[in-house]
Design goal:
With about 675 residues, this protein is an alpha+beta fold. The chain folds into four domains: about 1-240, Immunoglobulin-like (Sandwich); about 245-460, Neutral Protease, domain 2; about 475-570, Immunoglobulin-like; about 580-665, Immunoglobulin-like (Sandwich). Helix content is about 20%, strand content about 35%. The strands form nine sheets. An eight-stranded mixed β-sheet has the order 5-4-8-2-1-13-16-15, with no helix packed on it. The protein is elongated and about 95 Å long. It binds zinc ion (ZN). Zinc ion (ZN) binds near residues 333, 356 and 359.
């Protein structure tokens, strides 16, 4: 043993580096530039897979906010090892460690920088299965990424205690021993010792509740679906529990949904949670059956301002409960994480966009499902301001949980969806959820694009590189000139990319350009663009309308282009009519009595709406005042006009929109 201790001192003195096994002296790759994510690179320091955890946690000492318990690790060695290594904050005491029921000599236990090393005299060989039991106690410290990973707080008029956990991203070690990386899932038995009057919520199925002594009880949950440590959780309070049953439209199977809410929140929670079942309808139809169908979904209130997708038992911040659906998107986000993140897990925190992007996209999917396609598009567009000015890549971005990572991640999903079209995209997502290595070992950005390139049938390397491993967004400047003769026309167009930055590439993206002809027909040109300054020339055998809009709401370029005023600059000094007022679309279309027109205005003020029939005769006119420029909408009721094709135009001061074809079916 002396030999070991000497080695430890020697290495501690030599390296200021955290990642030295004190018993073997092995050092590991250290990436100081990615500080807290550095564990991502260290899966080889454990050299074992966890098959199953059993946790016992006594949470009754709320006065000191202390825990007392044990963790059992059932593991399989993935290499020959002579040290069992696990994560636990140094502030917590390790009372004893048992290896297959044999107590380990304390001299063989070393703790350095939140990691515990247990020296094994006989060692384990590759493939050996073994069991370790770690008794521990103490006061979980604050200071994880989200500050309080184990929190004792109070709520309501009577100051009722609530105990909750927040283990993301690497904070499970703040309240229990574990192997705290997102790529090793294990099944879990969770025993929570709490007060008899309280209700405890956790992952998986409620197995039993047993009163033990002094008005205390032990609540046992079992999670049979392997779960990552960062989404293993407990929540304990004087909750009111209520349940509902979701019936899967796909299979007819039933799923219990259990809500653990503060009694004072019950009424509001019932309102805010009233569309959760419909969220399950929405997501299961698109992403495939709810992955945890044999267990449950649940939500437990905790003192926070967001949500945490703890597997099968989401923790929902108490401030989310308002009784008026204010934070509906957060609730949808956490439900969707059960496909993106909990089921298909990330391999490392550098790729966190894979789970957050999927969940934020799902917020848009939910709004589109509940309110129609414009709600989807408006939500996606609302994400852009957080994205457009950041020049660093989202891969490994710090801070990890920034809106930039979430929202750009959602846009990457959205662009892949646009390339495939909705139906093919959702078919691909269903296959993605069924890929065993993705839902067991986790996924990386590279694997994501390898997978989706099978569906897009194109090499996605360039796309991946520019959107994930490089930063920024394309900043397009368009200019064009139209040359009309009697029976044909030429469109000359120049597209410049003006984005700047060391890590910002010239983007290789298709740009959809809508052209409209004088005979009311139109055509969509998909322009390949991959240079900083690129010119195009198109010939048509009919006359062009005198201006073109760049129709592009699915890729990021439209709003990410320079300001509207500069967007269309003169092409070879020929003056063009600048489109500032435009119709985005109408919904529904076709329609059968009324339709909502969505449009952009150059200025606030009066807007004239004119509808023409195919002969160019005016069949409808209206004039209305709009207080704001930019996005607006108007409901038009067609009353007794006959069925057919019509063209809508809007005029705002001196700017006139293009004609928009609308179809009226009685
Ligand atoms: Zn999330």
């Amino acid at each position: 043993m002396k030999y070991v201790l000497v080695l430890m001192l020697f290495f501690s003195a030599l390296y200021s580096n955290d990642y030295i096994n004190p018993f073997t002296g092995d050092t590991y790759d250290f990436h100081p530039e990615v500080s807290f994510r550095s564990n991502d690179y260290l899966s080889d320091i454990y050299n074992y897979d966890v098959d199953h955890y059993e946790y016992f946690i006594d949470v009754t000492d709320t006065l000191n906010a202390a825990v007392d318990g044990y963790a059992i690790f059932n593991i399989k060695a993935t290499a020959d090892i002579d040290t069992f290594t696990f994560d636990l904050k140094d502030e917590l005491f390790v009372d004893s460690v048992f290896w297959n029921d044999q107590k380990i000599d304390t001299l063989n236990i070393s703790r350095v920088n939140d990691r515990t090393y247990v020296y094994l005299n006989e060692g384990l060989n590759l493939g050996d299965e073994s069991s370790f039991k770690v008794y521990y106690h103490g006061v979980p410290p604050e200071g994880s990424y989200f500050n309080a990973s184990y929190d004792v707080a109070y709520h309501g008029e009577n100051n009722s205690v609530v105990i909750s956990t927040m283990s993301s991203p690497q904070a499970a070690r703040y309240w229990h021993p574990c192997k705290d990386i997102p790529s090793d899932k294990a099944t879990v038995d969770m025993f929570i010792k709490c007060m008899e009057y309280q209700k405890a919520a956790s992952n998986g199925l409620l197995i039993s509740e047993e009163v033990v002594e002094d008005s205390k009880k032990i609540v046992h949950f079992r999670e049979n679906y392997p779960v990552c440590t960062y989404i293993t959780s407990i929540a304990v309070s004087n909750y009111t529990k209520y349940s509902e049953t979701w019936v899967s439209p796909q299979t007819g199977e039933t799923l219990p949904i259990d809500y653990y809410v503060y009694p004072e929140h019950l009424e509001n929670a019932k309102i805010d949670f009233s569309n959760v079942k419909d969220m399950f309808n929405c997501f299961s139809e698109r992403y495939g059956e709810y992955p945890f169908m044999d267990e449950k979904y649940g939500m437990a209130i905790f003192p926070w301002s967001g949500g945490m997708e703890n597997q099968t038992m989401t923790s929902i911040g108490s401030s989310i409960i308002t009784g008026n659906f204010t934070h509906e998107n957060v609730i949808a986000h956490e439900v969707a994480h059960h496909w993106f993140g909990d089921w298909v897990n990330i391999k490392t925190w550098n790729d966190v966009w894979l789970k957050e992007g999927g969940a934020v996209l799902s917020e848009a999917v939910w709004f589109g499902y509940a309110e129609g396609p414009f709600a989807y598009r408006d939500f996606m567009n609302s994400l852009k301001p957080t994205i457009i000015n950041v020049k660093e890549p989202i891969f490994g971005y710090s801070p990890t949980f920034s809106r930039y990572v979430y929202n750009k991640g959602a846009w990457i999903f959205n662009m892949v969806k646009h390339i495939l079209g909705d139906d093919k995209f959702y078919d691909a997502v269903k296959d993605y959820m069924n890929e065993p290595s993705f839902y067991t070992d986790g996924i990386t950005s590279d694997q994501f694009f390898d997978f989706f390139s099978k569906y897009t049938q194109r090499d996605m390397d360039k796309f991946k590189d520019q959107w994930v491993y490089k930063g920024g967004v394309p900043n397009y400047k368009f200019s064009y000139r139209i040359e009309n003769s009697d029976d044909h026309s030429t469109l000359k167009m120049r597209i410049r990319q003006t984005q700047e930055g060391d890590e910002v590439p010239i983007f290789d993206m298709p740009i959809p350009v809508m052209v409209q002809f004088s005979d009311f027909t139109d055509s969509l040109l998909l322009v390949d663009n991959n240079m900083a300054n690129q010119t195009y020339s198109f010939q048509f055998n009919k006359r062009l309308h005198n201006s073109i809009p760049i129709e592009n709401f699915n890729f990021m370029s439209k709003v990410l282009a320079v300001s509207e005023e500069e967007e269309f600059e003169d092409f070879d000094t020929v003056d063009n009519n600048i489109v500032k007022t435009e119709i985005i679309g109408n919904y529904p279309n076709p329609f059968n009595s009324s339709t909502t027109i969505n449009f952009l205005l150059a200025d606030r003020g009066d807007v004239n709406f004119t509808v023409y029939n195919v002969k160019g005769e005016i069949v409808y006119q209206a004039r209305e005042f709009y207080n704001n420029s930019g996005f607006n909408s108007k409901l038009i009721d067609f009353g007794n006009i006959s069925s057919g094709i019509y063209y809508l135009q809007i005029k705002n001061r001196e700017t006139v929109s293009l004609l928009k074809k609308i179809t009226y079916i009685k």
